[in-house]
Amino acid sequence: xxxxxxxxxxxxxxxxxxxxxxxxxxxxxxxxxxxxxxxxxxxxxxxxxxxxxxxxxxxxxxxxxxxxxxxxxxxxxxxxxxxxxxxxxxxxxxxxxxxxxxxxxxxxxxxxxxxxxxxxxxxxxxxxxxxxxxxxxxxxxxxxxxxxxxxxxxxxxxxxxxxxxxxxxxxxxxxxxxxxxxxxxxxxxxxxxxxxxxxxxxxxxxxxxxxxxxxxxxxxxxxxxxxxxxxxxxxxxxxxxxxxxxxxxxxxxxxxxxxxxxxxxxxxxxxxxxxxxxxxxxxxxxxxxxxxxxxxxxxxxxxxxxxxxxxxxxxxxxxxxx
Length: 322
Fold this sequence. Notes:
With 322 residues, the chain is mostly helical. The chain has helices at 2-8, 11-40, 44-56, 58-69, 73-98, 105-129, 134-156, 173-204, 209-221, 223-234, 238-263, 270-285, 289-292, 299-321; strands at 101-102, 131-132, 266-267, 296-297.
């Protein structure tokens, strides 16, 4: 297929193809995830915070573990911190602008607190020792497992009918799993194509490697979360958007850095400790004001989140430029 080969050999063609695969993968993933939630009698939020979130974080896992094994610790940790900031400020902001998010305050409060606890644990270790070793890796993974068990236990203990709407699953569990797996595969391939094309185009325009790493790598590995959350919001499944964001942030810190630390000591760059880590914590805290004001993330608050991300990116570019 010469036309396809020519398209994929062109940077702009890679960007277009990546966007198409992201949109298709997100649609398939959300469809399977909603059906699986109905089948398991748990809320779509729980499916979003586990299966969907962990699956869409696959690019972050691949990038950070590979970077850690090659001794590029700045990229390994920076990818996680940058992706978490992107997830809340941009992804949740976009999802809220598309469709105001109203979810159970108990559920989002729980997962938001878990995300804050994960960020706090990372900050505690970063301030204490500036390095994560095997023991810290085991601790992170153990905390992640405990959070998953607690969340599932809480969802399962709800009265019948409270966890999900009274709808029937759309198809068999095998089809659900196949859809989820196919969607995740398309998301990973699409994100990889889009990142490669974007980085190449950025280099052509003379953008520095540092700026590319700070912006495109962190944002690029979060493209599956962005695509999934947008599709979920468009389909009226905003709770999957929230679960996807909070679950990805929890998994990024505890799961990805935990695995990376098991493979060898992970150095935490002092610049991340001085600035970006606190931006990540501030972004996580931004999850809670809407809960106090009625358990709803509206369009105005979504715009505020987006403004926060624009300000952060502007700061990154100005810092590099200086």
